[in-house]
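Final report, Chapter 2: Outcomes

The project's central promise was a pipeline that accepts a single protein chain and returns its three-dimensional structure in a standardized token representation, suitable for archiving and comparison. That pipeline is now operational. To close this chapter, we reproduce one record exactly as it appears in the project archive, with the input sequence first and the structure output second.
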Amino acid sequence: MTTKAAIDWHKLARELRVEQHHFIDGAGVPSIDRREFAVVNPANAEVHVKVARGSVDDVDRAVVAAQRAFPAWSRMAPRQRMKILMDFADRIESDGQDLALMDTLDMGMPISNMIDGEVAEAADIFRFFAETCDKISGAVTPTDASAFNYILREPMGVVGAITPWNFPLTQAAGKIAPALAAGNCVVLKPSEESPQSATRLARLFIDAGGPPGVFNVVNGYGHEAGKALAKHMQVAKIAFTGSVAVGRKMMIYAGKSNLKHVATELGGKSPQIILGDVDDLDYAVECAMHGIFGNSGQVCNAASRMLVHESVHDEFIERLINVTRENYVPGDPLDPLTSMGPLVSQKQQQTVLAYLESGQQEGAELLLGGRIPATAKNGFFIEPSVFRNVGNRMRIAQDEIFGPVASIIRFSSLEEAVSIANDTIYGLTASIFTRDLATAHRLARDVQAGVVWLNTMNESDMTMPWGGVKQSGTGRDNCLDTVYSYLQTKSVWARIS
């Protein structure tokens, strides 16, 4: 088996068959008005592909195709749907190199992370939800002897999915897989920053035996194609991951159209609470490092606020600085040894630089990073950056920066830690490090988050619901309940005497 290090990824990138069209009704098609937009490789700031730019008309064409395909797909024998989705998962793995290259070139995630993480996880997501196809059941309720009442779980119809650029494959899979398993048809609008792998997924679905029109992709900008999909009168549900500002718009669009269901996952400002009795400080530091610098900090649940007890505060900082210097050096994302790629765009790079300046102006002390790497002649790179003496009301402690910026906040009591942790509009995840079991469970109860890790971080599997509270969103992904969120309940009451 060829290892990642033995592959010439630059050569494969040059030979890659790019995806430039929408994928509607089983085929790649240009936009009706023939418009395109450029996708920039963030590692070198060069346009590497031009992609069809969707409009209201393209979205409508995709929704109509999905509507036509819905009756047959929704009534297909569940085990036949399962077979198609299982084959689909196998094809994702088989086509993994191309899928990985597309996303690395589009948004800059290191190729090793794409192969080992995104591709493998996307295939696993489809396998998990494929297995639910014949597990969905209704119920018969106890009634008076004169009546018979049964409850059906039925697919909604056409589901619109709008996904972000930071994890293109797994974000798409997390919405497409349960929707398809439940018997719905899908129109996916991927981020304009990372569109290619979505279209390839749609082709692979057809190759796996998926009927045309069941899974469609319309590329384009959020204010055009995304808005049109969210407002479409024949779309029964919108599943969205992105910013709070756009998540609010999804709710508004639903209200102004057909009151469609809306599920949102809207990011966070996750606290990592390190208590003085932490059992393994080195492990906590490692979790913190990967939690904020993985994917260049472009992670909704990034451990961007590190709440550290005063008794271990200085030692934690010293160890974090040392291991970060050893493990996270920005570099060529097509090099399998690279652990940290660029930010997705020049706009995002400038946003992060502005936050780094803001942190210093507000009085935080920059201990590491804060600059564009001297070796980065082109591309949108930022050094991993660490602040201490951060006040929780500073912008770097309140705003979702979406970059490799860690804010270390000192605390002295459990009550103070909980107060700081909850003092934000977000509530996606939190992690707590302590050897005291009672303290761990008390904090897990008191910290406002949809996911809490105890003495670890970023561990999960498909049995764990994923989603937030407060302004971090309204839905849950990656669990059995997710399938039911793509179904609607029908009660049938029959009089039998």
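Archive annotation: The chain is about 40% helix and 20% strand.
This record, like all others produced under the grant, will remain available to the consortium after the project formally closes.
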